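Much of our argument rests on the idea that a fold can be written as discrete symbols. This step matters because it turns folding into a mapping between discrete strings. The record that follows shows the chain in one-letter code together with its fold in token form.
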Amino acid sequence: MILSILSSLGLVIYVLLLLAALLLVPLGFPGTWLMVVVSFVYSLIADFQTGKSDFGILFVVILLAVVGEVLEFGIGVWGGKKMSVSNRTIVASLIGGVLGAFIGVPVLLIGSILGLFAGVFAGAFLSEILEKRDWRKGLQGALACFFSRITAMFVKTGIGFVMVVYLLVKTF
């Protein structure tokens, strides 16, 4: 009886942690890697498939997390390059995004995502203005970095969703 209650409680905690990790992904936090850690800990405590190795499942989850990171970075760089922004501008947008996300944390729930987007835009805009001395080109480069960041966020969140669904299918 007690073992059954603990098992059910553990399963509920596992599912809640996966969903919390998924919610962290669009906020710019490493939610996909949290899913990897949660699934690894779950595989140590309980088996995904009784009597079978969990290695294949964990491999797929790690692979999806790596693909998410590569796509997120690649989309960010590709979106900027497509609009002819410099490498310095892409780096400035990444730094601005990280700083903006940290500055926005005190605003409940949406602060970090708003800070992330504002920081990406501000970093790219400032870099482009300093480099090209034309506010129109600066605005164009900043918008390119901004929209590529939004696209990257949606792609990585979609991969995170696939990871959660895959893990839940394998669990149940």
